[in-house]
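re the bet — no i am not wrong, look at it urself. input seq straight from the record:
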Amino acid sequence: MHIRETVNLNTVRDADIIAWLKRQDNKSAAIRDALRAQCVRQTEYTLADIMQRLNEIERRGVVVAQVSSEDNGDEPEEAVIALDGLGL
């Protein structure tokens, strides 16, 4: 049994997704693989994933610095919010 789902893409905001889809020989299989990979990745993070998220945070103006082992755990409120938003 097959189920058909519809997705709307914005030509500006989703241009990267549209370009990726155009490069796929089997769009349905590629989408299924990407969705499965994302579902699995929700619980399995690589160092590259974490570094990418940290870079995104830094681009938003939050400074990410190495913390010494003597840190007392008093993170700035904006850093706590940003880290919580990582979904890790």
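see?? The radius of gyration is 18 Å. told u. also Residues 13 and 35 are 19 Å apart (CA to CA). so pay up
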